[in-house]
Structure formats: structure tokens, C-alpha cells
Amino acid sequence: MAGLHKMFGEYAAVRHVDLTVAAGSFHGLVGPNGAGKTTVLSMAVGLLRPDGGQALVFGVDVWKDPLRARQLMGVLPDGLALPERLTGRELLTYVGRLRGLDAGTVTARVDELLAVMELDGDVERTLVVDYSTGMRKKIGLATALLHGPKLLVLDEPFEAVDPVSAATLKRLLVRFVAAGGSVLLSSHVMALVEQLCDTVAVMAKGRVVAAGPLDDVRGGRSLEETFVDLVGVEIGGGEGLSWLVS
Ligand SMILES: Nc1ncnc2c1ncn2[C@@H]1O[C@H](COP(=O)(O)OP(=O)(O)OP(=O)(O)O)[C@@H](O)[C@H]1O
């Protein structure tokens, strides 16, 4: 992405952001609440029209050639709206056919994805409307993977996912990158980004304030310490709320 810019009224939510995810890299995007991560990712994948700048996926302009760009990308947006009154299998089958995969391929991939995401067995009778938040993340990730994309763009993929499922998702993403895929994910969890990502960008107030290989950005410290320095916030400050306990 180059020079991506977005105004909401008078407020510049994203200010001329440049970000490159190298092929085969696992790229983390971190930043405090309201930094502009979701806005950047939404513009990068074609869900929110930028006021300026360009988003390219392997050279394909997301806004000029959306169909080709979508073939190359798998997207897990924040607050994904899924067709609710379907089971996970029905949803994946529907998405697979929409994406032009033949019936045999869809069935085989849906079987595999439901098993990997542990959404098979008894859970198969549950409608998506009755899924927990973590289960919705998992089925959302499965829909993102279904067509075999080269790049995954994931907004907070681990939010509300239990530790066991998170470990499964991590293994899956590491495998995806090892097989040549690229991942761009946003997260609030520094430990997770340090564990998974080789490259990281830190956003604050709509700008990228640091970016590069993980070790360069954290410079011998933990990512959390670097993050606090860069965005100028105190973690766990004791001020205020004196009424909370007496
Ligand atoms: N549709 C919108 N209309 C108006 N303002 C918006 C809209 N979407 C986002 N914003 C504002 O833009 C800023 C960036 O929001 P964004 O959701 O991109 O941040 P974020 O880094 O993803 O935050 P979080 O970590 O809390 O998810 C915030 O100040 C938010 O209030």
C-alpha cells in the first residue's frame, strides 16, 4: 500500500500510510485502540474506499481490478458479517461455489477445514448464528482460506479465541507461510506478534511510526516496551478509579 489516506469527516483516521508485505513474510500490524489498523486493512483489501493512495496485491490494484485481487487474497475482516442461518459446512460450501470452485474441490476442502478448525462432529449441527465469537473467527478464517489465496489479511484473528484453538490457528498460519504464503495480521497481543511475525509495523494516530524486521523494530527489548515508548502510553497506570476498591 502506498500513501493510503482516509478521512472520517474532519478526522484523518489514516494519514498517508505506506506498508509493504514482502512475499513469504509474516507481517504484524500493531497499534493502540483507534490507531487506524482496521481502517488501513479495510482499504487494503477493497472493503473501504480510500480518499488517497493505492493498494496493490502482487501488482494487482485492489480498487481497479477487484476480482483478480480477491482471487489472490483471503480476508478476515473485523466484525465479519456472516450469513447466519447456515451451518458451518453450508456456509463454506456456499462461499466455495461463489468463488467458482467445483463441487468436488469444495467438498474436499470443506471437510479438511472443518476438521482443522475443530468445527466438525457434533458442532456441525450448530448454526453460525449460535457460534461463539471464537468459533466465528475460526469459520471466518476457513472462508478466507477456502480458495487457496497467496496472501491472508487478518484483522484480530485471535480475539476471543481460546488458547487451544489459538494454538491450532497459529500452527495453520505458520504452515501457510512455510508453504510460501504471506500473512498480514493486526493484533493487540504483542507476545503473539513476537512469536509469529518476522516483520512488524507500529501504527499510532493514523500513521506508521515504526516498521521493519521484528528485531530491528524492538532493538533488543521486548516489543511491548518498544510499543509503549513509540505510542507514548502507560500500561496499567494506577491513576483514577479510586472509588473502585476501598
Ligand atoms: N466509519 C467510521 N466513521 C467515523 N469514524 C471512524 C469510522 N471507522 C473508524 N473511525 C475512527 O477512525 C479511527 C481509527 O479506527 P480503527 O478502527 O481503524 O482503529 P483500530 O486501530 O483498528 O482500533 P482497534 O484496535 O480499537 O480496533 C478511530 O478514531 C475511529 O473512531
UniProtKB/TrEMBL annotation:
Pfam families: ABC_tran. Keywords: Antibiotic resistance, ATP-binding, Nucleotide-binding, Transport. CDD domains: ABC_DR_subfamily_A. GO terms for molecular function: ATP binding. It is a peripheral membrane protein. Residues 2-230 form the ABC transporter domain. Its main location: membrane. It is found in: Cell membrane. InterPro entries: AAA+_ATPase, ABC_transporter-like_ATP-bd, ABC_transporter_ATP-binding, P-loop_NTPase. This is ABC transporter ATP-binding protein.
